Amino acid sequence: MSSKASSTPTNKTLPSFFSLLRSSLALIRQNFSAILGYTGWLLLPIIAHIIIRTTLGLSDLGTFLDLLANIILVFIAINLCNTIALHVPIWQTKFTNDSERLAASATATALAQKNISSVLWVIIISSFITLVGYALIIPGLIFATWFAFAPLTILFENTRGIAALQASRNLLRGRFWSAALRFWSFEFLILISYLIIAGLILVAFGWQPSTSFGEWTPPLAADTLMNFLELAVLPLIVIYTTLLYQALKVE
Question: What's the pLDDT at 204?
Fold first, then answer.
């Protein structure tokens, strides 16, 4: 596509926010068992978190042994998160694009592992730029929208580093506002839904809205339920973003 064409709105109309949301939910329903089975790997970091919280609460260990055990557990947890936290979303993204091919976990694992380092690097770069932009609020929102699809350009277009950021920004030329509306409408829906459900969980475990979190520590059970809540919503976030990316790629 020429630079002139890329700077003008495309003739294609992006699917509406509700259409993308319905398609995302439909894909999850159709492939629920496969998505649930593979997303279940994220239970490992949650289990590591539970073990760490439990160990930190033990008082019958000697000071040195307690410290050593915690260091080992934290090290294990960090490695689990590094290995799994990106591995599963990458697989979910690929699954959205080609569910039949990725029904076999071995194929999915190979594809995810191949791209983890590149995706992690571009996330670090885009996050740094976006955080700097958030100091002025509006630039941060613009940067977050520009670079939202950078990991997907790595997976589907084989870009790397700064080129992935540029490819993501180019997707939005001529369609920035329509894409931003769909992207942030979804983000807002997820945020509000999460806050409501998380708030209900915390209230059920004794938190009072008038109490600051500095004065009240959620019990382990509440912490665990909130981790499960984040785990449950991850496939929807990944699939919706992938479908929006695919819509933007249509010429």
Answer: 86
The average confidence (pLDDT) of the chain is 76
CA angle (179, 21, 241) in 5-degree steps: 50
SS3 of the chain: CCHHHHCCCCCCCCCCHHHHHHHHHHHHHHCHHHHHHHHHHHHHHHHHHHHHHHHHCCCCCCHHHHHHHHHHHHHHHHHHHHHHCCHHHHHHHHHHHCCCHHHCHHHHHHHHHHHHHHHHHHHHHHHHHHHHHHCCCHHHHHHHHHCCCHHHHHHHHCCCHHHHHHHHHHHCCCCHHHHHHHHHHHHHHHHHHHHHHHHHHHHHCCCCCCCCCCCCCCCHHHHHHHHHHHHHHHHHHHHHHHHHHHHHHCC
For 76, residues 6+ apart whose C-beta sits below 8 A from its C-beta are 48
Is residue 156 within 8 Å of 171, Cβ to Cβ? no
Rounded CA separation 164/175 (Å): 18
Whole-number Å distance between alpha carbons of 133 and 140: 4
pLDDT in tens, 67-114: 565 556 555 555 555 555 566 677 677 777 666 555 455 565 666 677
